Amino acid sequence: MSKQDNLYLVGLMGAGKTTVGRLLARHYGRTFYDSDHEIEARTGVKIPVIFEIEGEAGFRKREEAMIAELTHLSGVVLATGGGAVLSQTNRENLKNNGVVIYLRGMPEQLYERTRHDRNRPLLQTENPLARLQELFRQRDPLYREVADVVVDTGRQSVSGMTRALYGKLDSLTRGLAQPDTAD
Ligand SMILES: Nc1ncnc2c1ncn2[C@@H]1O[C@H](COP(=O)(O)OP(=O)(O)OP(=O)(O)O)[C@@H](O)[C@H]1O
Ligand SMILES: O=C(O)C1=C[C@@H](O)[C@@H](O)[C@H](O)C1
Ligand SMILES: [Mg+2]
């Protein structure tokens, strides 16, 4: 398996990893996985319940095992959980087995996108914007460390961002990608 066989998305909560990941998978004819969804499917409960029962540390263990499993597959687009890059093992698995795309959003914008959603336990605080700012400071260097491509989500729409990505990725994955040019 070579690095070009897979595409991995990293970035903070609300960056668009799941949304953009699905579109990339369809475009390149690859199988889409979302590590958060796989963990939920495997445990039969939502992520906030895992945090409640096992704490963040318990969730991170499950996440590490899941990322290891998913980065051993070939021909996939993988949307990772926002905190996956905290683990060095995950960072190595991601860097070694796929082209890593960092969807880079600013905390203020991510706050707007996530404020009505209750499924992100780390944002269930009095001041979720301050939490996103803190997470951005901690994690931006880690996302950059693993990334082959950095895309600022800025004010771009999902479709604008995905189109810009096709151009960058086609040169990185030349010969291996099988774009479905219909979208
Ligand atoms: N570029 C964008 N412009 C506007 N809205 C966006 C953009 N990207 C994502 N969104 C919206 O933001 C919300 C969060 O996106 P999404 O769930 O894909 O993020 P995520 O990175 O997978 O987050 P998490 O790490 O929490 O799983 C969704 O409602 C999505 O439609
Ligand atoms: O940023 C994070 O640490 C998280 C992001 C989500 O994708 C989930 O993996 C979980 O809510 C933790
Ligand atoms: Mg997601």
TrEMBL record:
Provide the binding site for ATP: 14-19, 120, 156
Task: Tell me the HAMAP family matching this sequence.
Answer: Shikimate_kinase
Q: What is this protein called?
A: Shikimate kinase
Q: Name one GO molecular function term.
A: shikimate kinase activity
Coarse class of the protein's main subcellular location: cytoplasm
What PANTHER family would the database entry show?
SHIKIMATE KINASE, SHIKIMATE KINASE 1, CHLOROPLASTIC
The record's section on InterPro entries has: P-loop_NTPase (IPR027417), Shikimate/glucono_kinase (IPR031322), Shikimate_kinase/TSH1 (IPR000623), Shikimate_kinase_CS (IPR023000)
Instruction: Report the gene name.
Output: aroK
Q: Could you tell me the EC number(s) of this protein?
A: 2.7.1.71
Keywords associated with the record: Amino-acid biosynthesis, Aromatic amino acid biosynthesis, ATP-binding, Cytoplasm, Kinase, Magnesium, Metal-binding, Nucleotide-binding, Transferase
Job of this protein: Catalyzes the specific phosphorylation of the 3-hydroxyl group of shikimic acid using ATP as a cosubstrate.
Catalysed reactions, as listed in the record? shikimate + ATP = 3-phosphoshikimate + ADP + H(+)
Q: Which organism is it from?
A: Thiobacillus sedimenti
| Places the protein is found | Cytoplasm
Q: ATP-binding: is it a keyword of this entry?
A: yes
